[in-house]
Amino acid sequence: MSRRLLIRSLAQRAAAPATPCTEAAPKFVNLPAEQQQQIDAYLDILLEWNKKLNLISRAVTEKSEAYSRHVDDSLALLPAIDRCLAQQRQYLEQHPPRADAEQQQWQPRRNSRGSNSSSSDARPYKATATGGPRVVDVGSGAGLPGIILAIVRPEWEVTLLDSLQKRCKFTQAAVEAAGLTNVRVHCARAELAGRDPALRDQYDLAVARAVAELRVLAELCLPLVRTGGHWVAAKGAAPQDEVAGAKTAVIKVGGKLLGLEEVDSEGPEGPRTAVLVRKACPTPHQYPREPGVPGRKPLC
User: Closest by alpha carbon to 72, among 261, 265, 208?
Assistant: First the structure.
């Protein structure tokens, strides 16, 4: 089946009446029928493309397993995310944007080698057209958790950020199959996205799931988040040592570690965890560093 016919077939299936899946995980079952249909359409195309691309574990071939391992695991982050966004609303009430913010001029600085390097002064933040939060899924891969979050929170504007063209091609097809209008796919390395004037300081929330260790993720995620925004990293059971080792890195890029929150999802080693970080101040202009450097030489 061609890609165009596959997308059309899945989109038609998403518009059809919902068929309850008794094997689905409980968080999925409790969703409205329309959102269940969208997630079903997403999983159909995910499992189809995964036969040729390494999007998720090849061992996952049935929807029932995909529901629990990927859908419910993504949905488990929502309580922590919602609390972060509630804190942001309080922050904005106490620190309203400057009236002349739209008139401010912001340009990347030039570093010693002549290339662009983002200013430590935060770029003026622009609210979304819907008034909902702007969210970026860093290292989105197969679109997890970004696509699931976009389905259950249609008022959010979600960006799926990934560096590989083949994965971005898939997520664009998945967005179309699920009928999502609140998602954009951006193909770029996170280090470059963090220096892009159109992306730096522009998100209320960054999420990352199973991408890299926290010292690396801090440098990739926080430059994209506006001051007062949050970064939520999904981790496995007992990440306390990793969190302790990342504390200095988080501070260097403008973050403040808020703590750990156990989420309602089980990993191979026990309950999974959400690491919560607030963007306390603008990220210094030297971060993120050149592509590949954060991974080779994590901040410490």
Answer: 265
Model confidence over 5-43: pLDDT tens digits?
Answer: 455 554 554 444 444 443 546 788 889 999 999 999 999
- Residue 51 DSSP label: T
Question: 91 or 202: whose pLDDT is higher?
Answer: 202
Residue 242: count other Cβ atoms within 10 Å of its Cβ: 16
CA distances from 274 to 153, 245, 255 (A): 19, 16, 16
Cβ-proximal residues to 205 (8 Å cutoff; 6+ apart), any chain: 81, 84, 85, 133, 134, 135, 136, 225, 229, 230, 231, 232
End-to-end Cα distance, the chain:
50
- The encoded tokens of residue 174 equal 């998945």
Q: 141 φ, ψ to 5°?
A: 60, -115
Q: Residue 129 has what pLDDT?
A: 59
Tell me the per-residue pLDDT of 165-178, one tens digit each, with 9 for 90 and over. 999 999 999 999 99
Euclidean distance between CA atoms 258 and 199, whole angstroms? 24
